[in-house]
Design goal:
The termini are far apart. About 50% of the residues lie in helices and about 15% in strands. It is built from 20 helices and twelve strands. The longest helix is centred in the N-terminal third of the chain and has 21 residues. It is globular. The strands form two sheets. Strands 5, 6, 7, 8, 9, 10, 11 and 12 form an eight-stranded mixed β-sheet that branches. It is of the alpha/beta class. The protein has three domains: about 140 residues, Orthogonal Bundle (N-utilizing Substance Protein B Homolog, Chain A); about 35 residues, no CATH class; about 190 residues, Rossmann fold (3-Layer(aba) Sandwich), CATH 3.40.50.150. Strand 6, helix 16 and strand 7 form a beta-alpha-beta unit.
Amino acid sequence: MTARRATAQAVSPARRVAAAVLRRVEQEGAYADRALAAEATRAGLDARERAFATRLAYGAVQRRRTLDHVIAACAGRPVERLDAPVRDALRLGVLQLLFLDGVAPHAAVDQSVELAKADGGPGFKLVNAVLRRAQRDGPALLAALDDASPHGAALRHSVPDWLAALWWDALGAEDARALLATVNEPAEGALRVNTLAAEPAAVAAKLAERGVATRPAPAALDGVPLPEGLLLDSPLDPSTDPLWAAGALVAQSRAAISAARLLAPPPGARVLDLCAAPGGKATHLAALVGRGGEVVAVERNARRAAVLRATVERLRADSIVRVQTADAAVPRDDGPFDAVLVDPPCSGLGTLQGRPDLRWRARPEAIAELAELQLRILAAGADALRPGGALVYCTCTISPHENERVVERFLAARDGFALDGATRRTLPHRDGTDGFFYARLRREV
């Protein structure tokens, strides 16, 4: 065994996986969630190791701006001047020292030094020195960060300045600060039981037999129960569980489950789902309308449509869901439908807990472009709805331009449609789930 390999093996498997994820995100432009899934599977991590690797990798990506502020202060040089393996080891080390409970400081330092040693260069000495300084001076450096303004909050909570300003304007300072703090915390572990294949109580019992604790999911929206929802109180990678292969489980936040429940199509209804991939909502609609109903699930991207078809088959909904590869913004000739779900492409800013690199990929100028596309898709869905039918427009973002203003523009331009109740939203810091927006519309004529 070479010295480098022996050094690498001295690092815990979870930390090795987290370092590999950071390298792929930074050097290859990989998505953190996909890179984590691949690296954790390759390393054969068990559920608890995978959970720790997720906290490390996601935390280091999410808190990158704040971590780099501390590292630069303790290293006396810009982070951009550090070699990539040294930078990754330092980000993981500072994260553990300053943000993760339950990690002994000596373990955070020693394991990060070993990570740098595994690269074979002399950088491990710098890692050791910087982390010792960070252990001593880091708490004061963080305490000095002031979130009284959007710019200060962006540095303290590690987001781009434009995003902090957007939420400041949309929510007010107090809610914006609370939201910015929450999007750096782990997302809720939530499942939807596919009632086409199993019942929630039976699934919970089977998971309990394997030591996985769950509890019924509380409502994310007032008056919208989630009887098929479960919250996880134990680590679980759903995709490795036998219930997943059997089609009984979907990894889906309470906010996402709420969309189909708010639309509430009756049994036997004919439903249109626009922008349906990867299929969580389409298959939920299938479970609600049952074997006598039909869900037409539309997805423009051929690769995503293939994923959608695979999801439909796994969840035993292929006799109900008909997948179409088509442009959701193009008017349809196969209506009318009893109910329509419009879930268009959006900036995704309500999902930063589960998509850690999204905050660094999102572009403020794209929001206006998305809003125009969303309006066209909403119009196409509305045209396909029968008189008296219901339409739910929902997004997974916290952005008024893509939410309230799209609906306002649509209603101002179209007669015969009205809001069926007030618009609604979930917020991570308030509701403990993803940030979604919902508007339920009724076609009157």
